[in-house]
Specification:
This protein is an alpha+beta fold. It has two domains: about 160 residues, 2-Layer Sandwich (Beta-Lactamase); about 30 residues. Helix content is about 50%, strand content about 25%. The strands form two sheets. A five-stranded antiparallel beta sheet has the order 2-1-5-4-3, sandwiched between helices. It has a two-stranded antiparallel ribbon with strand order 6-7. Adaptor protein complex 1 (AP-1) is a heterotetramer composed of two large adaptins (gamma-type subunit AP1G1 and beta-type subunit AP1B1), a medium adaptin (mu-type subunit AP1M1 or AP1M2) and a small adaptin (sigma-type subunit AP1S1 or AP1S2 or AP1S3). Keywords: Coated pit, Cytoplasmic vesicle, Golgi apparatus, Membrane, Protein transport, Transport. One of its GO terms (molecular function) is clathrin adaptor activity.
């Protein structure tokens, strides 16, 4: 069973955390500090499995190239999961890979900015995929269909008049178009 999953940047900034076992806030801070330090200090060719305290830690580096106004940005996110000692490390690595695939499908090539600005969606994708530290839905299409249904429900519940009056709807529309443009052009560079 997975104990926790954390995502952090190569600068060590926490982007997402999901705890499946109860830890105090002090313990969480220590775990985050220790694991980000350990994982970031490892060389790229080193093994992605670490025995840490009484857990196995499995991590994967997700690399994404982004093209923003004539500047190339090399973004890396580290997906780090801690599992019990008897759990299979390769299966955990595959779980991380499946989560990255789901994020890629949902966001259209996920990058760090997607996680920062749409963290609630990243959590929702994770919750649709895993429950209580165990994989609940192995099918990508089924999980993505459920996520799309939830998006439709949220859009129907949003007070449309308020957003239109404030001009926010146009802003969100423009940002979505710009985000799609960035993702599409990043693949051709």
């Amino acid at each position: 069973m997975m104990q926790f999953l954390i995502l952090f940047s190569r600068q060590g900034k926490l982007r997402l955390q999901k705890w499946y076992i109860s830890y105090s806030e002090k313990e969480k801070r220590k775990i985050l500090r220790d694991l980000t330090t350990i994982v970031l200090s490892r060389k790229p060719k080193m093994c992605s499995f670490i025995e840490w305290k009484d857990l196995k830690v499995v991590y994967r580096r997700h690399v994404h190239f982004c093209f923003i106004i004539d500047v190339f940005s090399y973004a890396s996110l580290y997906f780090c999961a801690a599992v019990e000692p008897q759990d299979n490390e390769l299966l955990t690595l595959e779980i991380i890979h499946r989560y990255v695939e789901l994020l890629d499908k949902y966001f259209g090539s996920v990058c760090e900015l997607d996680i920062i600005f749409h963290f609630e969606k990243a959590y929702y994708v994770l919750d649709e995929f895993m429950l209580g530290g165990e994989v609940q839905e192995t099918g990508k299409e089924s999980a993505l269909n459920d996520i799309d249904m939830q998006d439709l429900i949220q859009e129907e519940e949003a007070p449309q008049g308020f957003f239109e009056e404030q001009g926010i709807l146009f802003f969100v529309y423009c940002m979505r178009k710009w985000n799609v443009y960035l993702h599409v052009n990043a693949h051709f560079v």
